[in-house]
Amino acid sequence: PSGPAPSSLGFEAGGRPYTLLLRELPFGPSQDCPTPGFVRGLELQLHAGLPPSRLLAVLQKDTRLPASRFCAFTYRLAQVRVLGKSLAVFVAVYRTGFEGPDRRWMVVTGRLP
Predict the structure, then answer these.
(1) How far apart are CA 41 and CA 26, in angstroms?
(2) Distance between start and end Cα atoms, the chain
(3) In the chain, where are the structural domains located?
(4) pLDDT over 80 at 97, yes or no
């Protein structure tokens, strides 16, 4: 990945504006990674409005890096899908790969208020 990671994604659902905010959580160095470096978790928040105002929900907040995200070092918000009150947020997970960065995808789900 090049350039700064976008930390927000605005969208509209049911005629109302919302903003997703992504914050990377530094967990420090990991000896388990092929190239020792800092690993990061994520926090994903749902806010009312564009620009964001009131916090509505925390959709995801890591307290440790799950094994499935082996050596993750950054995240990118990609897309949001809404069906009724259900919400699916697609997040690119960049981790250390064999010959450089390896991008994988995860989906964080939630409900709109």
Answers:
(1) 7
(2) 33
(3) 8-111
(4) no
Token reading at 101: 């960065």
Could you give the count of Cα atoms lying within 13 Å of 70 in the half-sphere of its Cβ? 11
Question: DSSP for the chain?
Answer: --SPPP-EEEEEETTEEEEEEEEEEEEEEETTSSS-EEEEEEEEEEEETTTT-SEEEEEEE-SS--GGGTTEEEEEEEEEEEETTEEEEEEEEEEEETTEEEEEEEEEEEE--
For 24, the token pair is 């990377």
Distance CA 29, CA 76 (A): 21
pLDDT in tens, 54-86: 999 999 999 988 888 888 889 999 999 999 999
CA–CA gap between residue 42 and residue 31 (Å, rounded): 20
- The pTM of this model reads 0.86
